Amino acid sequence: MSRGEYERARAHKRRRTAFIALAVAAVLVFGGAGAAFAYYSVLSGNLHDGVDDDLRAALVETDLVNEPFYLLLMGTDGSDEREASEEFAGDQFRSDSIMLTRIDPVNKKVTLVSLHRDTLVDMGEYGQNKLNAAHAIGGAALAVETVSELAGVPISHYAEINFDGFKDIVDALGGVEVDVPMTIDDADAGGHLDEGLQTLNGDQALILCRSRHAYEQYGDGDSFRAANQRLVLSAIAKKLLAADVATMAGTVQALSQYVTTDLEISDIIGLAQAMQGLDPSTDIYSAMEPTTSQYINNIWYEINDVDEWKKMMARVDQGLPPTEEDIVDEGSNTVLATTGNGDAPAVADAAQAAKKQNAVLVLNGNGTPGAGSVAAERIEALGYEVTSDNADHFDYEQTLVVYDDEGRAADAQAVADALGAGELVLNDGTYDTDGGFVVILGSDW
Predict the structure, then answer these.
(1) What is the pTM of this model?
(2) Lowest mean pLDDT among 92-106, 188-202, 271-285
């Protein structure tokens, strides 16, 4: 047997094994071999609905499970609300999220590089446009061609997800565990989300993936939203790769309703099997395209930093992390880039600790109306983030400045000096300072 024949035989065996695994799951869910094959056909038809010859012509062939390849992953805003709107009439929508993904099944590594939807690009006959207009102008094929030209790499596969169905995919997995970097209150994204490690259901995951207004005080909201999308995708990958056959089949069923892709079901299952053992903390790299913002003709654009972008993509194409170090925004605790060294959570924890150290809780313990607000203003002048509330009672005689660490006595004294009153109290566990300071206003203030 020649090497080529051997490889083809192996590929056929893998695809047959993947198909059997899915068929078995379908039998478990629906009962009967006939139902299994009918189920497979329906799902395959759903996944390929919208995949045309132009898209297939734009993609480059690769050996799916035996060599690294690039996949363009796009989240579109073709929601039910927009489909019902005259403003968005038609079946093409501007892409809301654009992610170039390098998948290495041999070394079990995945690289996620988010691209700014407002990146100014040359689309040839269509002129200068924002990157996210490619999908609206020429569908998936033009999106693939445009991103391939921008990144300087061939793209082998394409997947497009409608955000309406994102929550169903997460729910099919029974939720995903995510360390939410900060509390989110964003009505435009869908509501409230608590900070911290938790299992998110589909609706909650969608809030995290859509929110950008909650981050505007920290910088470019799109960058933070993209970072959270990568965070959720990593959590999905972790859950999916550890799933049993029945759960995987249920997830593919959910995918088929909201995802358009050139990949076959057997490709998806086979790739998932090939990637089993991947550890998201060390085997998933992530970053975002380096750009600068410019206001041109009354429109904001992101201008690609060509030199830095070339360096980033050179690293990515070699199988290296996009950046040399993890990047964490200390204000929001959001991980903006990961290098797979397993330190990103620790770095994030350190950023969170710093954030807590900068927090001061002012409690009105003397009952004077507005006292907490006045005190908060004086402390904020020192650079602290201050919140205020009422104390458990209003008969405190002396103002207290409570701190946890002896090494912060000087900082506590500075707070007292700003107030013009305050006895320093080293916390013995009586007070919940959570790493920062607690000020209780007494009648001496």
Answers:
(1) 0.69
(2) 92-106
